[in-house]
Amino acid sequence: MRSADFGAAEGPGVGGPVAGGLGHVERPAHPPDRTQAILEATKHVAGLLKAGGHPFALAGSVAAYAHGVPASFQHDTDFAIRREDAEAVTRELEKAGVQVRVPPEDWLIKARSHGEEIDLIFELARQPVTAEMLERAQVLPVDSVRMPVLSPTDLVASLLAAFSEHHCDFGSVLPIARTLREKIDWDRLRTENEGAPMPEAFLFLLERLNVIDPDEDHREEEAT
């Protein structure tokens, strides 16, 4: 059998379609690395915000990754910005060719970079992003690019405040709380979430799992 016939006989099998007529096989492209794509989008937008002098802090699952939590990214990257900076941030991104749109929700704007969604958020779980919150941010490397990242306490506070009867995914927050437990002001979180059923239930779960120490002061108050 001639080599050309051998190549033709292979057809579009495991190696992919034949091209060139001499047994040259085109391999299928590898699927895109979604984690790396999200990191590239994060670095791109953070670089633009830094260059423009706009105060911000990385939030959400990519912020958890920056603090040392194993990568488990959601569908986008979150940045915390102040509401009063939204127009200036929009101009900065659009000037760099980044698509920006205003969704029906009035607490964020959305952008798109490297094919990934970017949320620029003015409110974290109905709490406004403040200058004080951004000042507490820590500058950390994110895939070799340094940028402000929400402090561990502010990060977990935003996740706890998002719990409700309609959204209560303890499983996604538990690894973050477990990894960052020594860096978090748990007394502050207990105080801020006192009387909120879902956050209090999560904090109680952390106690039962020995992730954090029991709130002995609160137990003594209930006993009296």
TrEMBL record:
Gene3D superfamilies: 3.30.460.40
Extent of Gly residues compositional bias: 10-23
Residue numbers spanned by region Disordered: 1-31
Domain of life: Bacteria
Matching InterPro entries: NT_sf, NTP_transf_5
Annotated protein name in UniProt: Nucleotidyltransferase family protein
Organism, as annotated: Streptomyces solincola
